[in-house]
Structure formats: structure tokens, C-alpha cells
Here is the input.
Amino acid sequence: MIFKGLNVNFAKLITKLYMSRSISTHILSLLFALLLVSSIAFAQDAAPAGGLSENADVIAKGEELFNGNCKQCHAVNEKVVGPALAKVYERRNLPWLINFIKYPQKTIESGDAYAVALYKQYNQYMPNHDFLKDDEIVSIISWVQAETKNPKKKGGDVPVDEENPKDQKSESSGLLVGVIVGLATLLLVVLSVLAMLGSVLTKYLAKEKALTEADRAILSQRFDFGKFVTSRGFVGIASFVFVALVLKIATEALITIGGQQGSAPDQPIPFSHKLHAGQYEIDCKYCHNTVEKSKHASIPGPYVCMNCHNAIKTTSPNMALIYEAVEKDEPIQWVRVHNLPDLAYFNHAQHVKVAGLDCTNCHGNIKEMEVVQQVSLLTMGWCIDCHRKTEVNAKGNAYYDNLSEMHSKYSKQPMKVENIGGLECSKCHY
Ligand code: HEC
Ligand code: HEC
Ligand code: HEC
Ligand code: HEC
Ligand code: HEC
Ligand code: HEC
Here is the structure.
């Protein structure tokens, strides 16, 4: 008998027993909360290939969508403009992929570690694809999965995994696993020590005859699950986890709403660039004919449409709208997509004619767009970033001869836009 010969104070022992039980209950609540938190964290991280399809129709649709929207920048087994997509469904889970493919730039700007690392590596934004539906993106990734497993073409089946940045999220979630496992073990150890103490105390006290009724009641108490679930500690922790979860979902949803980028307003006539500039290969300058001569790129009037549509699709209700505009001699009320604030000065001729930039640099691949959408941010940081990176196209431009000569005297770096004053406030602000 451990306590033999000691002057034992029963009341104190009973209190100790009571306390050790109540501490155990709190530890149990904590363990439960840990379990909840970790299951949420894993439900989001794991489940990689879940949701993908092996149905031949879905895969065929995915291939078509891939060829129409992604092929110019991606292949499955090799790096093109963007990374090789082989096994991307293992690197990222499906909800992440859907969100990233719809809003890559927003994902990067939200600080997502994986996306930021990719962007640092490729130094280019992938355009938004928010016109794709979730199930269409799922079909594209399903096709990627099928191609990863059974590439149609031989010889290209070495996925270039090392091209991709280390999966930072899984690194950080590895850390999270460590912390959670460590904490849980510690709590379990404390819990079992308390249980041992409790049982020794109970055994000892049970033999004592000098106990009161109330003391005996405490002694014979068993663990009551109902009471545990309604206890203050448990309810407190459970509601905290719930609120945190709701907040997380809400902020994630907020990140993907709002902002001008990606805006693609409805137009009075469903004019398709994909059809006209893509399929029929009509030159951008045929319609936006001032883009090399002036500040603004003109939007074509109904007469330009009439050059073709007095003969093509004449009975379509959409053409009736064009004919009406011509008759009334009024422009069609197109809704503006891009719109810089008045305080900023931007000139198309300077960028298209002088700098020799392609429209895609700033507008993305318009030829693939059913509805025009704003692909770039159009913020001051966006303009400046390009001016820091882009070399001046000085060849064949006598205006720059002196400047380039001066520049190469003082610097071995190529002459960038910033070197010719492209970061001066007054160049962009009146
Ligand atoms: C104009 C070029 C371009 C187009 C078009 C494009 N992407 Fe990308 N994509 C990129 C670049 C560049 C990156 C690297 C990330 C970054 O810098 O934004 C990327 C990254 C990705 C990633 C992440 C890859 C990884 O290894 O984690 C996925 C997935 C992806 N793209 C899918 C698509 C899909 C699907 C489409 C078509 C619906 C598409 N992309 C169209 C350029 C493009
Ligand atoms: C057949 C005529 C036609 C051709 C060819 C054409 N566009 Fe357009 N474009 C339009 C019309 C009409 C609008 C206004 C309606 C709309 O926004 O869809 C427009 C709108 C735009 C806008 C958005 C303007 C805004 O409101 O901010 C951009 C950017 C643009 N076009 C770029 C291009 C590029 C780049 C090409 C070549 C790849 C091209 N367009 C070829 C007729 C044309
Ligand atoms: C260096 C970036 C850049 C390039 C290259 C560029 N644009 Fe733009 N574009 C812009 C910006 C910025 C706006 C918004 C201008 C504003 O709101 O004043 C814009 C607006 C437009 C508009 C709406 C009308 C207007 O001028 O405001 C059309 C149409 C257009 N661009 C067509 C084109 C076409 C066609 C090309 C290629 C021949 C092209 N752009 C090349 C940046 C660019
Ligand atoms: C260079 C010739 C050409 C010009 C210019 C042109 N289109 Fe078209 N457009 C076509 C062709 C070709 C088709 C495809 C017809 C078909 O599907 O049979 C088409 C189809 C369309 C359609 C879809 C058919 C329908 O009935 O809805 C619309 C809408 C349309 N054009 C609007 C316009 C508008 C608006 C303009 C002026 C901004 C314009 N087009 C300028 C050649 C042109
Ligand atoms: C894709 C790259 C790119 C983007 C984006 C871009 N620019 Fe430029 N910009 C250039 C280049 C290249 C030149 C040099 C043209 C030349 O040779 O004069 C230039 C020149 C200029 C100049 C003349 C600078 C000078 O010193 O003569 C102004 C003003 C200007 N840009 C304004 C803007 C504004 C405003 C924006 C954003 C709305 C913008 N640019 C976005 C590439 C870009
Ligand atoms: C290459 C072009 C460019 C240069 C150089 C430039 N800006 Fe801007 N600035 C812009 C554009 C474009 C916007 C509009 C951005 C928007 O709407 O988000 C802007 C917006 C602003 C605004 C409005 C506040 C805001 O963020 O919307 C202020 C203030 C400003 N610029 C100050 C300056 C000062 C000061 C300098 C010189 C140190 C400077 N800018 C140089 C292009 C430029």
C-alpha cells in the first residue's frame, strides 16, 4: 500500500481525483479538436486524382478543350510556354486546379505559395479561363491524366517533374502533420498518466471506510459521454473550429470575386473573336485599324461589319441589329472591356508600332475568345513591371541610335524601357 503510514487527508485526495478527471475531459476535447482540424487539413490536401473521369467521351471533350484553349502554351510531357502538365493532378488537388485555371493571376496574388513559385519560374501570367465551366476543366484534367498514363505519341513519356517547383504546400503540410502528431502524442501521454493516477487513487480510496456519501459518489463516477459532449470546454472548442472553418471558406471565396481583370461583359451583339479572328483569320488591324497610328485602337463601326455581312448570314436576327445601326447611322453600343482611369496615359501606337509588341502581350489570346475579356491587370505595377523587363526595340529606329550608343557606353545590360524614361511619372501621368 503506497499511502500506508502517511497522514492522509481524504478530502484533498478526493479533490485531486476530481481534478484529474476534469483535466482528462479537457484533454479529450483538445484531442477531438485536433482530430477535426487535421481531418479538414487533409481533406483539402489529399484526394488528388479524385473527381477525374476515365470515360472516353469526357476525355475526348477534354482533348478538344485543351487543343482550343491550352495547346498554344502547354503540352503534357514537355515544357512549352507553361509547364508540362503530366501528373499535375498529383501535384495539386482538383479544386485548386479549377480555381487556378480560372483565375491564375488572382491565385498568384493571393500569395498561394505553390502558384507564386511557379510564377517566379515562368515569369508570365497564364490568362484567365473563367469562361470554362468546372466540369469542362475536369474533362481537360481527365484527358491530361489519360495522356500521362498512356501517351498517344511514343518517345515523349518522360514527365519533367523536376521542372516544377517543389511542392511547397506539401512541405508545409508535412510540418503541420509533425506538429499535430507531436501534440497528440503529448496529450495522450498526459492523459494516460492522469488515468493511472486516477485509478490508483480510486483503488486506494475505495478501501477507506471513513469516506462520506458524497465522496463515494465522486469515487464511483464513470466517464459520461453525454456530459462530455455538452461540457463547456468541448462546446467552446467545437464552435471555435466551426467559426474558423466558415471564415476560411468565406475568405477563399472572396479572393476569387471582384476586380476588373477577367471581366467579360455581355455585348449587344454576340460578336465572336474566336470565329472572326481565330477561325476566319481576319487581321486585328482590319477592324481595329487605328491601333498603329493613334493612342486608341478603334472599335469598328457597323459599316465594317457590312463589308461582309451584306452577303453573309443576312437573315440572322443579329444581322438585323447591324442593319438597323447602319440605317439609323448610329454606332453599335459595345460595352467597354478595358478602361484605364483618366489620370493614366497609354498609347497603342507606341507599343504596337514603335515597340513592335504583339496584341497578345497585353490582351492574351483574343483569337480563342468567344467573348473578349481583360486578361492583364492594367494596374500601374503591371505597366512598370513590363517596362523594367522589356528591351527597347531600337533596331532600324534612328531616333534611338544616339541613346543606344550612350547606353552601351555605360552599361553592358541591354537597353530596357526603364532606361529611356519608362518609369518617369510624367510619361504616364498628364
Ligand atoms: C498563354 C499561355 C497559357 C495558356 C493559354 C494556358 N496556360 Fe497554363 N500556364 C501557363 C504558364 C506560364 C504557367 C506557369 C504559371 C504562371 O506563371 O502563371 C501555367 C501553369 C499552369 C498549370 C500549373 C502547372 C503545374 O505544374 O502546377 C496548370 C494546371 C495549367 N497551367 C493549366 C492550363 C490549362 C488547363 C489551360 C487551358 C484551359 C492553360 N493552362 C492555358 C501558360 C498558359
Ligand atoms: C471583324 C472585326 C474584328 C476583328 C478581326 C478583331 N476585332 Fe477586336 N473587337 C471587335 C469588336 C466589334 C469589338 C467590340 C465588341 C467586343 O468587345 O467583343 C472588339 C473588341 C476588342 C477588344 C476589347 C475592347 C474593349 O472594349 O476594351 C480587344 C482587346 C480586341 N477587340 C482585340 C482584338 C485583337 C487582338 C484582334 C486580333 C487577334 C481583334 N480584336 C480582331 C471587332 C474585331
Ligand atoms: C502594351 C500593352 C498593349 C498592347 C501590346 C496592345 N494593347 Fe490594346 N489596350 C491596352 C490597354 C492598357 C488598353 C486600355 C486603354 C485605355 O483604357 O485607355 C487597351 C485597349 C484596347 C482596346 C479598346 C479601345 C482602346 O483603345 O481603349 C482595343 C480595341 C485594343 N486595346 C486592341 C488592341 C489590339 C488589336 C492590339 C494589337 C494590334 C493591342 N490592343 C495591343 C494595352 C495594350
Ligand atoms: C471579313 C468578313 C467579316 C467581317 C468584317 C465581319 N464578319 Fe461576322 N462573320 C463572318 C463570317 C464568315 C461568319 C460565319 C458565318 C457562318 O457561320 O456561316 C460571321 C459570323 C458572324 C456572327 C455569327 C452568326 C450569327 O448569325 O449570329 C455574328 C454575330 C457576326 N458575324 C457579327 C459581326 C459583327 C458585329 C461584325 C462587325 C464588327 C462582323 N461580324 C464583321 C465574316 C465577317
Ligand atoms: C508588354 C510590355 C509593356 C506593357 C505591359 C506596357 N508597356 Fe509601355 N512600353 C513598352 C515598351 C517596349 C516601350 C518602349 C517603346 C519605345 O520604344 O518607345 C514602352 C513605352 C511606353 C511609354 C513611352 C516611354 C518613353 O520614355 O518614351 C509610355 C508612356 C508607356 N509605355 C506607358 C505604358 C502604360 C501606361 C502602360 C500600362 C497601362 C504600359 N506602358 C504597359 C512595353 C510595355
Ligand atoms: C508606365 C506607366 C506609369 C508610370 C511610369 C507611373 N504610373 Fe502611376 N499609374 C499608372 C497607371 C496605369 C495607373 C492606374 C492604375 C489603376 O487604375 O490601378 C496609375 C495610377 C497612379 C496613381 C493613382 C493611385 C492608384 O494607385 O490608382 C498615382 C497616385 C500614381 N499613379 C502616381 C505615380 C507616380 C508618383 C509615379 C512616378 C514615381 C508614377 N505614378 C509613375 C501608370 C504609371
About this structure: The chain has two domains: 1-258, 379-430. The CA atoms of residues 27 and 187 lie 7 Å apart. The first helix runs from residue 10 to 45.
